[in-house]
Specification:
The structure holds two protein chains of two kinds.
Chain A lengths: L2 H7 L14 H11 L5 H26 L1 E3 L5 E3 H31 L3 H5 L6 H29 L11 H20 L5 H17 L11 H9 L1 H14 L5 H28 L2
Antiparallel strand pairs in A: 1-2
Helix pairs in contact in A: 2-6, 3-4, 3-6, 4-6, 4-7, 4-8, 4-10, 6-7, 6-11, 7-10, 7-11, 10-11
Chain B lengths: L5 E10 L2 E11 L4 E5 L6 H8 L7 E6 L4 H9 L2 E4 L11 H11 L4 H14 L15 H12 L6 E5 L7 H16 L3 E6 L2 H7 L2 E6 L2 E6 L1 H8 L3 E6 L5 H7 L6 E4 L4 E5 L2 H10 L6 E6 L2 H9 L6
Parallel strand pairs in B: 3-7, 3-8, 5-6, 6-7
Antiparallel strand pairs in B: 1-2, 1-4, 8-9, 10-12, 10-13, 11-12
Classes of the chains: A mainly alpha, B alpha/beta.
């Protein structure tokens, strides 16, 4: 039997490559079905964290602060200043929790990906599907948070609607990079490092005050990190101060997404198809 | 022999300096039940992974269903059923959902998968556990579910890596019965095992592997005929007198195998050998005459036991 006739006799409905079977949907459906057995209290805890920050710092502490100037020179109430940053953070949190702890477990303990890759799924199907699920969690947190913002009157312009696709982009970026990093980790302790990096990034990425308070070299460091780009992008949209820099922020996330997908796919292949 | 479904020539797998599979040759015919018998670390699982198109060979040739796994991994995997050594069922899904979701990984339509899932749950004797959590199943049930899952894409070859390791005797017999039915239906089975009784029950033909090489090949009966005697007499003298007794037994039977705790006397007639031993003035604490098994073949070929 020649290779050609064997391929023709196989029950194939679409062309398959070694990396991608075009069946990401099966991975996503599995994830959605599996969340039925998830403990929702744990899932929701990640959503409430930024809400609590908004209540204590934005509403409480904000009463002492008054108004703050954004990077585009606009004066806004303190709560409206930090709310978009916390919105970006909630997208990040959801995506990172899912793409680190959950992915690590599936990678090393439940052998889920190993099982998937003994079928006709390719590593890119698995990577895209799992990243999408992490993105979805980030998006759910963010949408919930946007509702809270609307209730408190913190969406200052109609462009706040565009913050929805923006948080999807942010969640996508963190999910993609998060899964790529997790796929290289060997122990749970190493995931603690991610948490260790995320806390200062959360606190210092122009989240609670303008980046201009820092000396210039520190500003460069902050601007190199992903959260700052997300914070600036979302803040511009919810306060209605659009600028050309937004394209840079979007570009930053597109690169982050691409890098994450490439590394995750290669890593899955190296781990399970070597 | 009809066109083989698996052809391996000088198949080799190295991890750094370590050679896990060292240039093995074998063919598997369609409908055949083919076994790889050997101790832990012999290279059985590595061979299975290469045949399963999830591990690339270091050297040699390998064709599965006429395709080279280096170029057609997904096409090959879509026609294989895989039962791994360690269960990797989806713990977050219930029993029937495990089959449905797995079937969808192959891109099969929902209705087709649902119909097959019900038939396979019946086959795996799990029809009353469809809503159960995987964690609540016994070891034997998990294995049967794994086998059912491996059959969801109606594979042309079913790969089983140590299918009954860790199961209690009753669960093993149920599983053997299920596998035997598959064999009767014409499914090509490739299995690894270090249990000789399992190999004897299930395999039409097998290769004995040790340290990445094939030591012998044939049907279980032919291997026993070729490498062992019809019967084996096992005598025990107590561990401190074992070596001393062994020295006196030279010349008894066709061949002797001295193990730390007992001496095996290979012969066509075990009872007659026992009589000779008694005439020599030796009185074993226990004696047992049994038929030769693949364990004896392995001992003969490698000088070591299968299960250490």
């Amino acid at each position: 039997m020649t290779a050609a006739s064997a391929a023709a006799s196989a029950p194939l409905t679409r062309q398959r490559s070694a990396l991608y079977a075009g069946n990401t949907g099966a991975v996503i459906r599995r994830g959605l079905l599996a969340t039925r057995s998830t403990n929702y209290l744990v899932v929701l805890s990640g959503f409430f964290e930024p809400v609590f920050y908004l209540l204590s710092l934005g509403i409480g502490f904000g009463a002492l602060v008054g108004s703050v100037q954004t990077s585009t020179g606009q004066e806004v109430p303190y709560a409206a200043f930090i709310a978009p940053a916390l919105l970006a953070v909630s997208a990040m949190n959801g995506a990172v929790y899912d793409s680190t702890w959950n992915v690590f477990f599936k990678l090393n303990y439940s052998k889920l990906y190993q099982g998937m890759l003994t079928t006709s799924l390719g590593p890119l199907d698995v990577a895209l599907g799992e990243i999408f699920l992490a993105l979805l969690r980030g998006a759910m947190y963010a949408v919930g948070f946007m509702v809270v913002m609307q209730l408190f009157g913190l969406n200052l312009a109609w462009t706040a609607l565009l913050a929805l696709p923006a948080v999807l982009l942010i969640a996508f970026g963190f999910a993609s990079l998060g899964m790529a990093i997790t796929s290289y980790m060997k122990t749970f302790q190493q995931i603690e490092w991610v948490t260790f990096i995320m806390l200062p990034m959360f606190l210092f990425s122009a989240t609670f005050y303008p980046i201009s308070v820092y000396p210039e070299p520190i500003q460069w460091v902050i601007q190199a990190l992903p959260l700052w780009h997300g914070v600036e992008l979302v803040r511009g949209l919810t306060t209605g101060a659009l600028s050309g820099m937004m394209l840079v922020h979007v570009g930053y996330y597109l690169v982050m997404i691409a890098i994450g997908i490439v590394f995750t796919t290669n890593r899955l292949r190296a781990l399970f198809l070597r | 022999m009809p066109q083989p479904v698996i052809t391996a020539r000088k198949l080799t797998k190295k991890y750094g300096d370590f050679t896990a599979v060292d240039g093995i040759d074998f063919d598997v015919a369609p409908g055949e039940s083919f076994g790889l018998l050997g101790p832990n670390g012999a290279g059985k699982s590595t061979t299975m992974r290469m045949v399963g198109a999830v591990s690339t060979r270091t050297a040699g040739d390998l064709e599965i269903l006429g395709l080279d796994p280096n170029d057609h991994g997904p096409d090959i995997r879509s026609q294989l059923g895989v039962v791994p050594q360690q269960d990797n069922l989806d713990q977050e899904l219930r029993v029937r959902d495990n089959l449905l979701v797995y079937g969808r990984y192959f891109g099969l339509p929902r209705a087709v998968v649902a119909e097959r899932a019900d038939a396979l749950l019946e086959f795996a004797q799990l029809a009353d556990r469809t809503k159960a959590k995987v964690d609540d199943l016994s070891g034997g049930m998990k294995r049967r579910l794994t086998i059912a899952r491996a059959l969801i894409n109606e594979p042309r070859i079913l790969l089983l890596d140590e299918p009954t390791t860790g199961l209690d005797p009753q669960a093993r017999h149920i599983l053997w019965d299920r596998l035997f039915r598959l064999k009767e239906q014409g499914t090509t089975l490739v299995l690894t095992t270090h249990y000789m009784d399992e190999a004897e029950q299930l395999c039409d033909r097998l290769v004995v592997v040790d340290k990445g090489r094939i030591m012998a090949e044939g049907s279980p009966a032919a291997l026993i005929r070729e490498y062992s005697s019809r019967e084996v007499l096992e005598v025990r003298f107590g561990s401190d007198r074992n070596a001393e007794a062994a020295a006196k037994l030279q010349g008894v039977g066709e061949r002797l195998e001295v193990l730390p705790d007992r001496i095996l006397v290979y012969s066509a007639n075990g009872e007659a050998e026992l009589e000779r031993i008694t005439q020599l003035g030796l009185h074993p604490i226990t004696s047992l005459v049994r038929r030769s098994s693949l364990e004896d073949v392995f001992l003969r070929l490698t000088g070591r036991s299968l299960i250490e």
